[in-house]
Structure formats: C-alpha cells, structure tokens
Amino acid sequence: MGCLRSLSALALLIVTALAQADEVRVAVAANFTAAMREIASAFEQSSGHQTVISYGSTGKLYAQIIHGAPFDLFLAADQVRPEKLEGNQQASGRFTYAIGKLVLWSSDAKRQIDAEALKKADFSHLALANPKTAPYGVAAMEVMQNLGIYPQLQRKLVTGDSIAQTHQFVSTGNAQLGFIALAQIVLDSSGSRWLVPDGLYTPIRQDAVLLTRGNDNRAARALIDYLQSDTARTIIRKYGYATENTP
Predict the structure, then answer these.
(1) Contact criterion met (CB below 8 Å) for 75 and 32
(2) With a threshold of 0.85, does the pTM exceed it?
(3) Is the CB of residue 96 less than 8 Å from the CB of residue 206?
(4) Distance of CA 124 to CAs 156, 160, 176, 196, 207, Å?
(5) Which pLDDT belongs to residue 9?
(6) Could you give all domains of the chain from N- to C-terminal order, each with its CATH number?
(7) Between β-strands 91-100 and 204-211, what pairing exists: parallel, antiparallel or unpaired?
(8) In angstroms, how far is CA 60 from the centroid of its own chain?
(9) pLDDT digits (tens, 9 = 90+) for 57-85
(10) Residue pLDDT, tens place only, 7-28
C-alpha cells in the first residue's frame, strides 16, 4: 500500500508540473543559434516550460511575423525591426539582449587575415550575409565601404541567405573568406580570423520583443525575464557578445 501511495503522489506531482508548464515559440536571428540553444536548455530545466525555436535571418523572420507566423518572442539581430513591431503595436517590452561582434574568417589556418589582406584581394570569393535581410551583412558592407575597397571587391562577393549560410560557404571552401558573427567561431580555434575593429561598422545591437501573441503566455514572459538574468547574460558573453553595461 505504501508503494502505491508513493506512486500516486509521484503521478500527481508530474501531472501538476505538466499543468503548470507552457510552451513558448521563439523566432531567433541565426547568429544567436548556439547561445540560444544553451539558454533554452537552461531555461527549460529551471522553469519547466518548453521552447520551440525557429532560426533564420532577421529580415525573413520579421516578414513571417508581420504575415501572422505564430511566434511569441522575436530575438532580432538589429533594433530596427523590433522597433517597427512596437510602433505597429505588434510587440512590446523591447530591450537589447546582446551586442554582436563582426569577424572576418577563413577555414585556412595559414591565411593572413586583416584589413591589408582585404585590400590585396588575393582570393576568389568573399562571403557575407545578404544585407537586405541580415544585419551582419549590413555591417560587412560598412566595413568594406569604410576601408574604401568595396568597388574592387564587388565582383568577388557571394551572399548567404543568413549568417549561418555565410559560415557554411567558408567552412566548405566555396569562399576563401567570409564576414561572420564572432559567436559562430568563438569556441572553435580552427582557421584564421580578424576581429573587425568596432570603429569600422555601426554597433550591432540586437533587440528582443514580446509579440502580441505572447502577451498572455506565462512561458513567453518567463523567457523574457530569463534573457535578462545574470545566468543568461553569462552565457551570452561566453559566445563573444557584449551585453548592456559590459564591454
């Protein structure tokens, strides 16, 4: 009988926990993939809530949202699109969750990479994310323009739909160099890299918003709070980002 009572109590605890758990659907900019996976895992363990995450370029995710895609949160790679959603009363609670860093990367560990290497243009293809949909692509364009080398490199550029595809172009050798997010390689020592000086591009401030669909979703509100916690910020900085009030 004691065993049966214990099993009944355990079953009640499980049912209660499931009843209190909610699901949050999140649209996340591709550069934040690795960090978000770690954050989501920690959040699920601590809260009991479940996350369903879609990754892609900020522009494409934004287009899906304004056309009614069922997301509760949007973690963009810029400030412009979250601000537009707030202005259209489709979102609220905007805040900067990360400040991204741009890096020029090659899978060839022996290749010299810096501003002078870009000017010499001793390569066939240079990859970047599509500036129309990806803020890291915009930053890459700014770097080339500020160095005065965009005209000579224009024919060598190949664009990825997202920063994830841009990384793939370089890792597979389809491009010898590529502008990607530091977060994509910060834990990977392979290849060679040049951390682009901050002064060559506008800071990549990445904002998150609670979408109207998530207003009454406990899991969505809990994740918004979690993203601003010390635990989440430690993970974010681990992947090479800066956070508010930190370098």
Answers:
(1) yes
(2) yes
(3) yes
(4) 6, 16, 7, 21, 35
(5) 46
(6) 23-100+204-239 (3.40.190.10), 102-195 (3.40.190.10)
(7) antiparallel
(8) 13
(9) 999 999 999 999 999 999 999 999 999 99
(10) 554 444 444 444 457 999 999 9
